[in-house]
């Protein structure tokens, strides 16, 4: 997984210096994909499938492939934070997770610009560049730094929910961040940089690696709706655990 992420990351760094020459398309309003995304996913696919040809595959930019080995499958976002990448903002990452059916086994989030690789294996803890990491310690709600994603473009189904959340949480916390890369938001919860992060309506590739890394760092990652799993709904709250109930109580948890 690390080899695949490093290879993809090298190509993305090169592409980030040649943005004017990239072919870019808009999948839905505000949701972009470039040839850099597609190439990075091919690099990861080829590397992993050469080693594990019977594993399934779910990637953001390519067709899903069923597993032929015990439900094992890769869930991959080759470039999380594409809009940041295309605007020259140095905050984007490669995300790779290994699942068995709906159970995460291993996860990796690689930020090539900052040279940070977050990883975890089920039951083995979470790490940043080989050093063990844990979620933040308990802090008063008023001192908490939280993160979220604000709906935009063609993904505004839950805009009113998000505005309700902000109205409730912004006066109660020390600050809110919206950085545009879900995988890194989750990694930052795991590393203790954010105390909590929530979002709705993401793709499984946005969440798959980060949810395991948060849990292995001692945090919690739960669905916003009790009858819908995190991966399938794309809607969740991740936190250091200590603030989980308080943040959850402030969120608009109505379904659409």
Structural overview:
With 256 residues, the chain is an alpha+beta fold. The longest helix has 17 residues, at 35-51. It is built from 8 helices and 14 strands. The chain has 2 domains: 2-133, Fructose-1,6-Bisphosphatase, subunit A, domain 1 (Fructose-1,6-Bisphosphatase, Chain A, domain 1, 2-Layer Sandwich), CATH 3.30.540; 141-250, D-Maltodextrin-Binding Protein, domain 2 (3-Layer(aba) Sandwich), CATH 3.40.190. The mean pLDDT is 95. It is globular and about 50 Å long.
Can you give keywords for this protein?
14 strands; 32% helix; 256 residues; 8 helices; alpha+beta; 5-stranded mixed β-sheet; D-Maltodextrin-Binding Protein, domain 2; Fructose-1,6-Bisphosphatase, Chain A, domain 1; 7-stranded mixed β-sheet; single chain; 2 domains
Short structural description:
This protein has 256 residues and is α+β, with helices and mostly antiparallel strands.
* Helix and strand element order: HEEHEEHEEEEEEHEHEHEHEH
Tell me the number of strands.
14
Number of helices: 8
How much of the polypeptide forms β-strand, as a percent range?
25-35%
Give unreliable regions as ranges. Answer: none
Please tell me the total number of domains: 2
Q: Please write the CATH class name of the largest domain.
A: Alpha Beta
Named CATH topology of the largest domain: Fructose-1,6-Bisphosphatase, Chain A, domain 1
Give the name of the CATH architecture of the largest domain: 2-Layer Sandwich
Report the structural category: alpha+beta
List the helices and strands and how they pair.
Blueprint: H1 2-16, E1 24-28, E2 31-34, H2 35-51, E3 56-59, E4 72-80, H3 82-86, E5 93-100, E6 103-111, E7 116-121, E8 126-128, E9 131-133, E10 145-148, H4 159-169, E11 175-177, H5 182-190, E12 196-199, H6 204-216, E13 220-223, H7 230-233, E14 236-239, H8 244-250
Parallel strand pairs: 3-4, 10-11, 10-12
Antiparallel strand pairs: 1-2, 4-5, 5-6, 6-7, 7-8, 8-9, 12-14, 13-14
Helix pairs in contact: 1-2, 5-6
């Amino acid at each position: 997984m690390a080899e695949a992420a490093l290879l993809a990351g090298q190509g993305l760094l090169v592409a980030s210096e040649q943005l004017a020459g990239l072919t870019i398309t808009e999948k839905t309003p505000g949701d972009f994909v470039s040839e850099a995304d597609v190439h990075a996913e091919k690099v990861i696919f080829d590397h992993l499938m050469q080693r594990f040809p019977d594993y399934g595959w779910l990637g953001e930019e390519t067709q899903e492939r069923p597993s032929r080995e015990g439900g094992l499958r890769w869930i991959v976002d080759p470039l999380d934070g594409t809009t940041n990448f295309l605007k020259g903002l140095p905050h984007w990452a490669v995300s790779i997770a290994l699942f068995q059916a709906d159970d995460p086994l291993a996860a990796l989030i690689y930020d090539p610009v900052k040279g940070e690789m977050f990883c975890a294996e089920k039951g083995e803890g979470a790490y940043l560049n080989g050093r063990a990491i844990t979620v933040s310690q308990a802090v008063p709600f008023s001192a908490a730094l939280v993160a979220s994603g604000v709906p935009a473009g063609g993904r505004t189904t839950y805009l009113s929910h998000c505005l309700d959340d902000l109205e409730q949480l912004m006066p109660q916390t020390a600050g809110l961040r919206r950085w545009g890369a879900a995988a890194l938001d989750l990694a930052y919860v795991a590393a203790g940089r954010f105390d909590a992060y929530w979002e709705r309506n993401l793709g499984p590739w946005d969440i798959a690696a980060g949810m395991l890394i948060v849990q292995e760092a001692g945090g919690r990652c739960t669905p916003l709706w009790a009858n819908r799993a995190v991966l399938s709904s794309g809607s969740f709250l991740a936190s250091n655990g200590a603030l989980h109930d308080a943040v959850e109580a402030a969120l608009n948890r109505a379904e659409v």
